[in-house]
Amino acid sequence: MKKIIQEGDKILREKAVSVDNFDTPELKEIVKDMFEALNKEDDGVALAAPQISISKRIFIVSPKIIDAGDEYTVFINPTIIKQSNDRKKMEEGCLSVRWKYGKTRRSSRVTISAQNIKGEDFLMEGSGLLAQIFQHEIDHLDGILFIDHAIDIEDLPPHE
Ligand code: CO
Prior knowledge:
By secondary structure, the chain is of the alpha+beta class. It has a single domain (10-155), classed as Peptide Deformylase, CATH 3.90.45. Helix content is 18%, strand content 32%. The chain has 2 helices and 8 strands; from the N terminus they run H-E-E-E-E-E-E-E-H-E. The protein is globular. Bound molecules: cobalt (II) ion (CO). Cobalt (II) ion (CO) is lined by residues 94-96, 136, 140.
């Protein structure tokens, strides 16, 4: 089982590298490890590969957010191709920055292009929480954490 690494680990600060081999056992293994790691976190909605120490441009989003049956949606080599100038203040946290929460300003609508596990291109538009997730996860791939730009950061560990 792959552990979700925490702020302070250098891997979280690296610029992750693009994936250029698709449909390989290695890529399937990485994605499976990401599913398992995210599935363990009750409050988790998305995860980027660097969070399990794999510095590659991959993130996944939970079916709690993108309705795809029981499946997580996989985004490989994602890029933002369009984003609204309109930005909203959002509450934000991160599975790699336990247990801090703060407020960030995020574009309220974002369109990204990405590839799926077979290497096929697709576009997805998100607004609100999904737009926030797209921006947060792509930041991870560039070594950026929400605490780098959040305000009103609070430490809120869960109650026992
Ligand atoms: Co995060």
